[in-house]
Structure formats: structure tokens, C-alpha cells
Amino acid sequence: MATIRAVGPENPKIDSSREKSPMVDIVPQPIDYDKISLMSKTVILGTAGHIDHGKSSLVHALTGTDPDRLKEEKERGITIELGFARLSLPSGTLAGIVDVPGHERFVRTMVAGAGGVDIVLLVVAADEGVMPQTREHLDICRLLAVRHGIVVLNKCDKTESDWMDLQEEEIRALVRGTFLEGAPIVRVSAVTGEGLSELVAALDRIAAGIPGKDSSNLFRLPVDRSFSMKGFGTVVTGTVIGGTVATGEEVAILPGGTVAKVRGLQVHGGPVDRSSAGTRTAVNLQGVEKESAPRGSVLCRPGTFSPTKSAEVFVEYLPLVPKPLRHRGQISFHAGTFSCVGRILLYGQAEIPPGGSGYGRVLLSEPTVLSGGDRFILRGFSPLANFGYTVGGGAVLHPKPPVRKGAGKAVPEALPKLRSEDPAERVLAAAEDAGAAGVTPVDAAVVAGLGAERTRGILTKLAVKGMITELPASGKLWHRSAISEASSYCAEALTRLHDRHPERGGFPREEIASLFPVPPDPGFLSLALEGNDSIAREGELHFLPARKPKAVELGSPLARKVAEFIRAGGDAAPGHAELLEAVKGVSSDPRAVEKVVDGLARAGEIVRVKELLFDGAALRGIQEKLVAFLSKRGEVTVPEFKEMTGLSRKYIIPLLEHFDAQKVTLRVGDKRVLRKK
């Protein structure tokens, strides 16, 4: 894969020169690209600070790469787009550098570059000191949960030492109470080179204490650039924020849903076979246009993540914002490289005051991909200008929350649990919050913000403790509280059914399920029925023992008439309407007839198959023919079964489904085979 140069999302160009490519920077230490994916550590450095405080010139001085590539950037002398470079630290750690714009009109771009940063370089010009975007960028980094950084007092060649002492005091006051409190302040001149070696040494010391990103998490790469290369096709770049990606694998591009094959990978200008979390990566996608993977889209494994337009969040509101964050207030939402307008619905309060915090639900105008634990930024709108300002941020707790009754009146019980530092508590909360709908292991991993294997290990332990029950056949799992609640509802449903049909001795699962507000998963319903000791079962019928009717007198004239009529039908079983018509001379009471049918069914004289009533002996004969046929031929189709029995389709489909349910046969595609004992 050739060296890639992207000079802007709308104006891509190709430059084979290593000296000019933002994916390749000039450093004295050579890099073995065949081994880069096996390096012990990679970190992402991000710049932050006010416009014209020398962020881009500092990156150029450190790496030899000018991160400003756009013609407009050269002409105006300001950074407009994200810029990229690489720096090999003395210890061997490879640092990818993301240079961000400092102008207030480009804070949206700054936020897109700040996501995933391990170490921030807060650049302050020594001749100007702390400025508005210095404060805003620091707030953004804090809200994005950046944990490490260095303050770079740049342009120290332009002022005196005493003045810089005063600037350092102001900086110390600014960062007090933030992650930069106690961080080194390094005096640097990007023009003369003064202090660069000290800055690199400080970066190396901090990088040594940063643990590597967890490559076991689900793979995600938020796209920050997308362009086309002649001979290669579509190339996207971004920072891998979870998992790994390898050449030859398929990736989904969300929210669009296109699936593409990874044709090639580059890390910092060199080809690699695999890239992992914490690494800036260029991905050559096969078979898609660049428009299918714009900035703001996300690469992930097919079947892991899905787009969402709603997320439940924990919000931190900045102290200096002039007005509170109100319920249903309009905001600009930024997560990763994605941004859109939306509204915030607050839980349990009408507003969040400046400096406050709270829970809420964000309603987005466009779909995006989110995971539990993702950090985001909220920006407001200034009535006096056509650009926004940062008002707060926080963490995503539930990326695809369920509909909640009385939303806004109280904080949902699940949300504080989903904020827990304990991964097991978050996984359990995801299962509990899913209720009767259940949750798949992958969905539980997405909500908890974990990898698939780690989530699987947690689920296994929770199952051993009896906290959850998983049904592999359905691919879902349920919290024990959901099963208990459904068990109680099953008893209530049976009470209502017994009230309606006191003559019947029991009710099939399907009839019980019909009384649920939302039709439950069949496996989940079985768990609920089996989990209630007050519910008894005979065959396929469930009942409350105290409500079971007394045995029917099978020797009565009505019982004899019903049995004779059904027996006379033989293989051609009648329905309820035909039976009622046939016994009118003996009884015209449908309830009395149903009571007799129920008693004959319990005695095995007749068998209910859907709405059909088969004579027990006749049905056993059909079953014997079917078993003999399958023993000889191995399988049977619907037409073959029809020819064998001589019955119409009205009978053969219900019969085949009955034999499936009785575990006589097993459906495989359009055929049936004998079920193994």
C-alpha cells in the first residue's frame, strides 16, 4: 500500500514523498514496519490551545512534519483541518500526534481530533498567556477524560524569564483541580529548538506510565478522513479506539451499513498486517466509494454495533456557563469524529445548574455509533455569533436505551449501576435493564463498554451465581428479576384464562403468551412457566391446580356423541365449528361441549392439533406411518407427506408442526427427519 497523503476531506492528493506525507514524519530512529503491530506500546498525543499559540509549529519542530497541509492553512497561517505526524520516543514508544485547530470556529474539528488522546500537549504562548480557547480546550480534554498531559509554554524566545514566571503562575491557577494539576510546564521555542529535548524526555516519562489500550474490546475506528487514491480506491484514517483490525477482514461502515473488505493497512506511513487499539491507522477499503465512509462514520465488525439516535448519558455541566441546561434544551452533540444537533431530556430534574451534573437522554438528529463509557461534548449556541461554545460533556451509559414509562420523572434504576467502575456490575445492569426483551452477549458487551471475551467470562460467572439465565438456542440471556416478574404474570394470565374458560383443564403456551403486553420470546416464556411453583403442567397444557375443573363424566350422552363424531372422522379431523353443529341434538351449550373435549383430550381419547380435533387412535396411526417412512427414506417433504396420508394441506401442515412439537420429527429446511432420542 503506497504512502497516503490526505490534505483535506474535499481535496485529496497523492504524495509519494516521505518528507511531505502526514502519515510519515522525519525522526532519527528508523521504524521496522513489519514489527510495528507487535510493538510494546503506542500512544496518541494531541495538541490543544488557543489560535496562533504555535501548536502546528511545535509539531513541525518535534517531528519534521508540517501538519498544516491545506492551501488555505498556508495562506491564512491558521490550522483549519486535523493534522497528523508521528514521533518515535527514546524508549521506543511510538507516538501518533493529532494537531487540532485553535480557532473558536473550528472547535468542532478540535473535538474530533481530541477523542482517544492519551497525552495532551496544552500549548500556551509565552507572550500572550492563557486565552479563551486555552480554557475551552482544557475543559474539552477534561470532559473527554484525558488523564495525562504536559503544559508547553511556547514562544519563550519572544519574552523574558520574569514574564514567563508570571505566565506559569497563571497556568497553575488555570489547571488547579484538573488532570493537569502538577503536570510539568516545559518552556519551549519551536523556532530556536530550545526546550525540545526536555519536552521529548517528559513525554517519554509520561508515556512509560500509560497502560496500553485494551485490544480485546470490540473493534471500532471513528473515521476522521476519507479520500480516494488512484489504483487503491477508498482510504479512511482514524484512531483505533478498541480491538484490532487485520488485512483481509470484513468491516461494517456505520451508520450506512455498507460492508467492505480491508485491502490494506498503514500505521504511521508503513504497511502492516494488523493494527490494534491506540494506533492511528489508514485503512484501504475494497469495493466502496469514499462517500460511503465519510468523517463521522465508524468502522466495526459486522454484527457488533448498530446505529442509534438516542442514548442515556451522565452530564457534567461547566461552572462558567451563563445559564442552566434545561429539560428538552437544544444542544450540539460531539462524540468521536461525529457531531449533530439534538435535545437533552433530563431525568429527575427540570434543569442542571452551572457546575452541576445529572442523568438524561440525548435525542439526536442523525444516527451514530456509541458504546457504554464513550465520552462526549455538549456545545450550545451563541445568539450573538454564528458559532457555538462548549457547555459540558460526560459519558454514555446506555447507547440504545429502551423506552421507559414516565421518562423524565425519575432517574432509571439502571443508570447509576451503568456508571459503576465494576465491569461485572455494568454487565449485570445491562441484562437487568433489558427486562423481558432479553439481551445478547454482544449487546451486553456494547452497553458495558467491554470486549466480547471479557463479557462472556463475566456472564459465565453470573450464570453460576444464578443471577442470569442464558438460552443458547435463542442467543439471548435474561436477568433473574425479569424471569421472576414474567412468572408472576404467567400466573395472572392463567387466572384470567381460568375465569374465562372454567370448563377447561389447561391452556397451551401460545394462549398464555397472547395475554402478555408484548409477545415474549418462546424460550423466555418457558423459563417463566417453569420458574413458578404455583403453575402445573400436563402435556402441553398449563394450569393452576386450584382452578382445575373436576373430571368430566366421559360416559355421558354428550361425551359419547363427541367421541363418536370425532372417531368417525378418522384421519380427516373436524374443527370446533363442525363439532358444535354435529352435537346440537344433544347439547347447544358451547361451554359444555368444550368441557367434554377437554376431558376427552386429557384422557387421550382425542388430540388437539391447532384448531383440529383428531381421534387419538387415528393420530397414532398417522404417526406410525410417518415414522416408518422416515426410518426407510430418512426424510420427508410436505408433498410426500400429503401423498402418504391422502389428506389436504388443511391437515398436513398442522400435523407436521404437531409432530415437530412432540419431538417426533425435526424440521431441516423444507424437510423433516426423525428426531434423535
Describe this structure in words.
With 677 residues, the protein is α+β, with helices and mostly antiparallel strands. Among the domains are: 42-208, Rossmann fold (3-Layer(aba) Sandwich); 420-549; 552-677, Arc Repressor Mutant, subunit A. Strands 7, 8, 9, 11, 12, 13, 15 and 16 form an 8-stranded antiparallel sheet that branches. Strands 2-3-1-4-5-6 form a 6-stranded mixed sheet, with helices on both faces. Strands 17-22-20-19-23-24 form a 6-stranded antiparallel barrel. Helix 14 (557-569) crosses helix 16 (590-602). The chain is elongated. It starts with 41 loop residues before the first strand and ends with a strand.
Low-confidence stretches: 1-39, 68-80, 102-106, 383-387
CATH class of the domain at 42-208: Alpha Beta
The oligomerization state is: single chain
Could you give the distance between the termini? Answer: 56 Å
Beta fraction? 25-35%
List the helices and strands and how they pair.
Layout: E1 42-48, H1 55-63, H2 71-76, E2 83-88, E3 94-99, H3 107-114, E4 119-125, H4 132-143, E5 148-154, H5 161-175, E6 185-187, H6 196-208, E7 220-222, E8 225-229, E9 233-239, E10 244-246, E11 250-254, E12 258-267, E13 270-272, E14 274-276, E15 280-286, E16 298-300, E17 308-317, E18 325-326, E19 329-335, E20 338-346, E21 351-352, E22 357-368, E23 375-381, E24 388-398, H7 414-418, H8 423-434, H9 441-448, H10 452-464, E25 468-471, E26 476-479, H11 480-500, H12 509-513, H13 522-530, E27 536-538, E28 541-543, H14 557-569, H15 576-582, H16 590-602, E29 606-609, E30 612-615, H17 616-633, E31 636-637, H18 638-645, H19 649-661, E32 665-668, E33 671-674
Parallel strand pairs: 1-3, 1-4, 4-5, 5-6
Antiparallel strand pairs: 2-3, 7-16, 8-9, 9-15, 10-14, 11-12, 11-16, 12-13, 12-15, 17-22, 17-24, 18-21, 19-20, 19-23, 20-22, 23-24, 25-26, 27-28, 29-30, 31-33, 32-33
